[in-house]
Every structure is written in C-alpha cells, then in structure tokens.
Amino acid sequence: MQNMIKDIQLAKEMVCEAGKQLLREGLVARTWGNVSVKVSDAQMIITPSGRKYDDLCPDDMVLVDINTLKYQGIKPSSELKLHCEVYKTRSHVGAVIHTHQMYASIVAAAQRDVEVLLPEHQLILGGKVIEAAPYALPNTKKITVETAKSIGSTNAALMSNHGVVCIGTSLEMAFDVARTLEAACAYFIQSEKKKQLV
Amino acid sequence: MSTTAEDIILNAGNYFEQVSSGYKTWGHVKVVQVAVRTGKQSYICSIPGKPIETWSHEDVLSKATTSSDLLGRIFAKRKDVQVILLTEQEYAAQVKETIPPILDDQAQLLGVTVRVAKGIDDITHALSGRFAAVMVNGRSICVGANLEDAYVAAQLLEKTSKAFIEAKALGGVKSINKIEAWLMQKFYQLKYSKEASKNK
Questions:
Q1: Is the pLDDT of residue A29 over 90?
Q2: What are the chain A neighbours of B173 within 8 Å (beta carbons)?
C-alpha cells in the first residue's frame, strides 16, 4: 500500500480536516457523508456518527478494527461497514470518502450508471463506466455489499438515490476522484441532454 | 425572547452569506423573508420586499399566529416550527408537480415528498409532516426548529428540485418506496439528528 498513514494522531488530524473539506467543497451538507483512512492492515480512522464537521476536533475521530468493527471512543459513522468492506476487499486502498455531491446525486436519482466520456476523467476514475449500485436502505448489509461490488476495478460507485463512494490510495486521491466524478457526471448529463435535442 | 428573535432576523443575511459557499453547486437560494416564533401565539418577521442586507429594527414586524396570512397559518398549525423562510430558488421555482422521494437525504430531512401548494389555503396541507413546500407562484416555504435547520431545508429543497428536473435528461428519476422514505425520516428525527449532542 502506497500511502498508509501509520501515525494514528496524524491520521486523526487528516480525517478531521478532510471532513471540513467535504463541507467546504459542497460535497456534503450538515452531518452527511463520511471519511476514513487506513492506518494498518487491520485498522482505520473514521469520522464519528451524526456530528457536525465544523464542531469536530481530531480527538473525535474514531479508531475502528476493520475485521471486527470494534472501536474505541465515540460512535463511528454509521457507514463504517462500507468503509471496512472496501478496505478488506482492496488492499491498495488507503482512503475512502462517502459524499452526497450534486451531479452524482442527479445520476443516482435516475439509477443510471455514469458513462465516463472524457479520457482524462477515465484515467482518474479508473474506467469508462461508474456503476450505480442498486438501491438499499442506508447502513444495511445490502448497501454495503452491493456498493463494494459496484466499485469493481474502478475508483468509485454511485449509491442509487443516496450518494457516492470514492476510493484512493490516499485522501488526496479520493478527493480527486470525487471532484472528477462530479465533473464526469455533469458532462454525462449535458451529453444526454444534447442527444435528446438531436 | 423577542430581542433574541429579532437578532436572528437581523443577522440572518450574514449567516446565509457565511454558509452558502458550501452549497455553490446545489443551485441558487435567495431568502426574501424570515419569520421567527416568539411565543405560542406570536411571531416576528421581516417586512416583505426589502433586500435582506438592508433589514434594520424598523423592518421587523410583530404579529399574532391568529392572523390569516401565510406565516401566521404555518405557525398556528405547526407547533414544532420556530423559523420560517420564504425563498426564491432557481430550480424549486421550476417544480410544478409533487417530487416523489428520490434521495435519502431529501426523505430524511424534508419529508416523504415535496408538495406544490396551490394557494395560501393549501400551504399547511402541503407542509404537513414536511419541512419544505413549493408554491405555484414560484416561491418556496422552508421551515425548521431554528434558522440553521430551515436554511438547510431550503438548500436541500434546491438540490432535490435540481435532481428531479435534470434527471429528466437521463430518463427521469426512480423513486424510493414511500414507506421506506417515511421510516428514514422517522429514524432521522428520532435518532440520528440527536447524535450531535449525544455522541461526544
């Protein structure tokens, strides 16, 4: 793994700052979304459940065992199972972010896969299609399994009627994937609009 | 209490300015009137028609919830509502039919569907069990337990409206089961929204 953050305190600071960045970039609102980084083969640091990003400090971030889901401190994000599933099935992944970003939400509300039309987007997203996982209620086994499956060999998946999950070897890469996916979704929507005009 | 309520109204413009940058991709929300409950049967509101950045003490009116106007009717019917925002929104203004549950965050925070109120007599029905409604005149009503909640409702209404309209190019939205949407709203209201204070 390229960028595993082994210093737990540093990882907490990075995850805390990443949560605030989600908010600043309009990728989430309120307490929605979540961020994690892997700190060892068996542990990750993740944002807490239901807390406002602006009120968080690094010590509020939660250390979770990826295999047992046991944690120390306050309650972790309710989406922790999805994060753990991604880390368990993809050893190269160092960071996971879950967002409710605008253009991806439009495609997710239509339950469509994203056709990634531009080569530069394909390069960052890791494929020509970003799949939409079938709808399932939040925090259920179905949403965890189906979303992790839909990522496939790419770096993201839509969660139908919900949001997206983006992965990377590092937090920077996961954010880059989220921003690129947003641009790819906007481009895809515009392209579909043009088809209707022809 | 009414001094605090007046502060909320007079500082609302600064607050919206401060937090709106995070929502820049969600569509444009312009708040044209703010009302704050001051008692069981009383509220204060900004006078309509003046830009929010110019509001001063003289622009705040005291009213009773027994008044037959739009704001009075909502406060009288909805005891849980402390703040009402009257807004003009880019995408919500284009909504002419009920938006079904299409996004989880919509269902959790706004309610199962977003209704279009046909007129002032219909507004409390349109808002029943919900925190936002669109009006046929193109304006929207967003409510909450405080200014922050009401403003998030406005932003989420805009995101939901944008998704509903733009998804037409993709073959239209596929909605969530209404019972599941209702369950999500209850879970959000009764459990998740309380974690901010409990999970420390």
A1: no
A2: 109-110
Q: pLDDT tens-digit profile of B56-73?
A: 999 999 999 887 889 999
Nearest CA in chain A to B182: A137
Residue B88, SS3 per DSSP: strand
Mean pLDDT, residues B155-170: 96
Structure tokens belonging to residue A54? 């602006």
| Helix, strand, or coil (residue B69) | coil
Q: Which residues of chain B does A160 touch, with a Cβ-Cβ cutoff of 8 Å? A: 174
3-class state of residue A73 by DSSP: coil
**Pick the residue with more confidence: B195 or B165?**
B165
What are the backbone angles phi and psi of residue A130, rounded to the nearest 5°? -105, 120
Is the reported ipTM for this assembly greater than 0.90? yes
Contacts (Cβ under 8 Å, ≥6 apart) of B187? B108
DSSP assigned state of A79: T
C-alpha–C-alpha distance, residues B157 and B141, integer Å: 10
Evaluate whether B35 touches B84 at the Cβ level (below 8 Å).
yes
* Number of cross-chain residue pairs from A and B with Cβ atoms under 8 Å apart: 110
